Amino acid sequence: MCCQTPESPKREESESKANHKRNLSSGTSDASPMRRSKRQKSSINLKELSSPEVSEAEGEVTSPPVKEEAVYAPAPVAVPNRKAKKPPVKKEATGDADSAKPVKKARKSKKDQEAEAMPLAARAQGLRMFIGAHVSAAKGVFNSIHNSHNIGGNAFALFLKSQRKWDNPALLDDHRDQFRQLCAEKGYDASKHILPHGSYLVNLAQSDTAKSKQAYASFLDDLRRCEALGISLYNFHPGSTNQTPLPEALARLASTLTQAITETTTVIPVLETMCGHGNTIGGVLSDFRDLLALIPKEHHSRIGICVDTCHSFAAGYDLASPEGFKAFLAEFDELIGIQFLKALHLNDSKAPRGSKRDLHANIGTGFLGLRAFHNVMNEPRFEGLPMVLETPIDRVPEKSTSDEDAGDGIEVEGEKKKGAKKGPKRPAGAGAATVQDPGVWAREIKLLESLIGMDPEGEEFKALEARLEEEGRAERAKYQDQYERKLEAVEKKKAKGHAKPRGQKNLMDMMKGDAKKE
Ligand SMILES: [Zn+2]
Ligand SMILES: [Zn+2]
Predict the structure, then answer these.
(1) Ligand 2 geometric centre to CA of 315 (Å)
(2) Known catalytic residues?
(3) Looking at domain 9-26+38-80+129-410+434-516, which of 3.40.50.10140, 3.20.20.150, 2.60.40.420, 3.40.50.300 is its CATH number?
(4) Among 14, 84, 294, 295, which residue has the least CB neighbours within 10 Å?
(5) 119-137: per-residue pLDDT in tens?
(6) Ligand nearest, relative to CA of residue 306
């Protein structure tokens, strides 16, 4: 029933452990803290970074030396309402491409105009790490560029079309041209630092012929959109076995991927690591090794992997400790090859390691903690890769709703609530009136950038770490409790001699593995 791989993550970890030290000593300059480029040392007020509410309320801004413009915009811009009609992006800035159909707009106040002209955060220059967020592409893909620029992102993700609908209008030539023009204007290299996210509906490992055809058509359409936009990397979920044997599912995935590669010319499909829940493919790194073995070698340069820190941690990998992080990368290199690593999704985890729950937390507030992101930001092998935040920015006033799967559920605005049927993922705060605050991402980007070269044993880091840890304390306790109760229930069932419920076998194996590890 449960089609997990025969090997659990733990077993693989221990299998490859013997080689970790060897690999690391040759592969990574592990002992040497990353050199900072001359402009990258930031003097950002850490209190503001770690405490969004505080900085908003204070509304005051410290200008780091890396800035070319003011750092944070005044509060009114920082808290746009998702429901507001007006997109957060200005057409004026895009040139005259849309002049064919002029739209009458309400006249803006001088104050509004000033606020709009000022980004929430300026983009850091000269860093080796390219950090950004999964921003909205509502009302046209080109708007994503404004949205990323607005939060100081040097990389970003977007949906190329609605991620929860099969039928989508074609990419307009005008939107394509504006996208390309804005990339050039704003200095985004689409071939390197823009990482669209695929549809949640697409399962390329699908066994049903009709559904498989539909999934493939949507996938190929996205890849072609990438090529039209000059984008080289395209992130998508490996899919689900749908309770068929894993090798068969991997064979179907390999076959459709191979076909997609042959039907396109430059775009690199990038498979995302998953949290290993149920029949999901990609929880364990060996899934990617096995998949690659089924794809002709000549296409390997057109395949990539994106590590989602929350997913891989929830799948059981220790990305929190420096040793665990190194071991993970060594295993990645050994099983897959580090050259396949093309991108990262940076998310903390609300749920504990091994919980197999996809619950993204804000950086430093979850079970990964700030140390995990210090590992990431100081890893030389990640230089130049797009790193994308998918952390929660939806704020539900008053009572919160269930936020299971919230992190990855970033929506094309306007599509959200209408299409909120049960799919592989649900939008953050679905059904509740939420307010989006991209200022959270602006601060998280600056926070991550400030970790480059920071001494993890120093006062600055310790204070920041403690503050964020405190911020997430209640939420971590909540999910820790849920996890423990789940494990108890599993134990009880086992004791009663019941068959193990689906997906629990590995969960228990993993716990045993955890105990064995540090
Ligand atoms: Zn992700
Ligand atoms: Zn994803």
Answers:
(1) 14
(2) 164, 197, 200, 237, 272, 308, 311, 345, 358, 360, 390
(3) 3.20.20.150
(4) 84
(5) 899 999 889 999 999 999 9
(6) 1
